[in-house]
Amino acid sequence: MFRISVAVCGRGISKMFASSFSGENALPSNLRIPSNLVDRARAKRPPPPSDSSLPVLRRCDAAVPVHLSPVQTWVETLERRDSKLLGLVDLHPDVFAVPTRIDILHEVELWQRNFKRISHAHTKVRSEVSGGGRKPWRQKGSGKARHGSIRSPIWRGGGVSHGPRGPTSFYYMLPMKVRVQGLKIALSSKLAQDYLHVVDTLNIPTPDPQYLMDLIRYRHWGESVLIVDAGEELPENILQATESLKTVNVIPAIGLNVHSMLKHEVLVLTLEAVKFLENKLLWHDERFTPLYPFKLPYTDLP
Amino acid sequence: MSLPFIHRSAMLCRRFRASLNLYDHTTRIPNTTIRLRVSCSVGEANIGILQSTEEYKFVERLIPPSRVPIPPKHDGPSPSGWTPPSELPPALPYMIRRSRMHNVPVYTDLTHGSRKTTLVRKVEGDIWALEKDVNEVTMTLRVKGHFDTELKEWLVEKGF
Where, by residue number, does the polypeptide cross the bilayer (chain A) (predicted)? Predict the structure, then answer.
């Protein structure tokens, strides 16, 4: 429901508001959207129809619930610059078509930013500032205000009374299932907004970064691309090509996180990465609560 | 009088033996274990360590599974009262999934000491067809009062 509405809004919105410029249905200025906001070239790729002739290269490994059907998307190749579609791929609806909860995405993004944060701001209290043990002048008779030490907070050069105290940690952990749900929602929203591309392998012909930039611009993918592969060993060419590029990055699938997905506009997954992610993310829907931490061995961890 | 005397003498014997280290404190090692052959003499080279992996199965069968098993097939309610979901989902605009332990997701809540509500979770599809006061974002439905048994029976009857 959300996917269809988002797709409809994205495609039809420029058509809806185009007439406002001619003055027929004059909208208030804060609702008027400029015509170059929606990239028309990106709107040319419709989702795969059910009667497409291309073969389905991968079906879902896990059981799909009876009342849902797998989502389908195209499989492309990076070998050539022009966009030749190799086939279709089935994506599990419980990973790639979950209802979009932006509040969970927000929570996970904030957690990712803050749980590693250690603030080293530290100020000295009046007892830590050097000096100030002696009463500066006598209590009565000098004509001056009464003071007990030269380092009290009202003095210049004195200690700070309520300042930051030492390294403070902002560590907290969100429940595992919330973090997993955040990943699923991020993947689903990327697919729904047409920013997800599936690729068969990451083999490119040249280690030239310009080739990748040409490919991205030709296919109208977007500004920044996050490429995800399943294993740790990535092909040499793609590593060299993306090393110097700032907006195109390659990561293994274990490194996938909500912040990176939100930071990069486009997400490119390989078929193995799709299989790995589905396996790992769907396990959380059917697992027991941990008897002991999952780092220790169980019989059937994913 | 004799009983406490025997008791005291047994305790004294135990303490005497413990002080002389007559008890065998080493654990009883069965014959089929990792055999270690370490040479005692200084000049010889170490013969080596033999490792056998046949005993690993005794530990492996103790490691628990991490996934909830699929319940066995029942026609109708099982002896405990649990009813499996129907094979085909009912033809309604909404769908209520089972929890990970294959139960109906209806829960009671007690807030403020006396406020009873019933929560129906995991509702998918058009939940406005179910009830008016519904939370579409979180896919839940809250009803005032404790109706969990009735709701569970009604949902099971429907075939969810």
Answer: none
pTM over 0.95: no
Contact (CB<8Å) B67/A297: no
> For residue A243, how many other CB atoms are within 10 A of its CB?
12
Write the DSSP symbol of residue A287: B
Q: Which residues does chain B have within 8 Å of residue A300's beta carbon, measured at their own beta carbons?
A: 65-67
User: Alpha carbon of A150 to those of A138, A142, A157, A160, A161: distances in Å?
Assistant: 13, 16, 8, 13, 14
CA pair distance B108, B117, nearest whole angstrom: 6
Q: Do A300 and B89 touch (CB under 8 A)?
A: no
Q: Complex ipTM above 0.85?
A: no
Q: Any CB–CB contact under 8 A between B3 and chain A?
A: no
Residues A88/A72, Cβ–Cβ less than 8 Å: yes
Q: Point out the residue among B64, B87, B89 whose CB comes nearest to the CB of A299.
A: B64
Write out the H or E segment, with its range, that includes residue B115.
strand B115-120
A294, B64: Cβ pair inside 8 Å?
A: no
CB contact under 8 A, B124 and A67: yes
> What is the C-alpha to C-alpha distance for residues A138 and B104, in angstroms, rounded to an integer?
79
How far apart (Å, rounded) are the C-alpha atoms in residues A181 and A174?
11
